[in-house]
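When time allows, look over one protein, given below as sequence and tokens. The question is which stretches look regular and which look disordered:
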Amino acid sequence: MDEDESLRRYGLRPSGAHLDEIRETLRTHAALERRAQGEGDTELMRLCCVQLFNAGDLDDVLTIWDAKRSSWDADSSVDVQLLCGAGLEETKAYLTTANPPEALAALDYLQLCEGGPATSRASLWSRGHVGTRTTTRIEQRALPPACAICVQ
């Protein structure tokens, strides 16, 4: 599956019934990227992360983080803001209490980015705002190099 097919099949705001398929696609491509950079489809990975972001489920934060950290290209493709589908403060609270060591690494990274150019408008980190801006960009077939917040 490529990003066009995923977009046709699930849209940007997929139903709950499709989220497990999206998570599995993301995990599969992240594993391919870890094996060898370029084997996974990082544009599809980014779209999966946007779809999961729009679902706003805190349980997806570490899945998105794992995908982001799977390769240099994936790290550049998956914006840190996509960790925050449930909201910035909610995500930070979740990462503070999550058990895996990756949670602390994600929290450290998020806090490092907070207040920088990528997150200078942290109050806008809500599913509605980012999802709407990202929707427009994806529909134009120009996936943003950075989250929609960054390009305002």
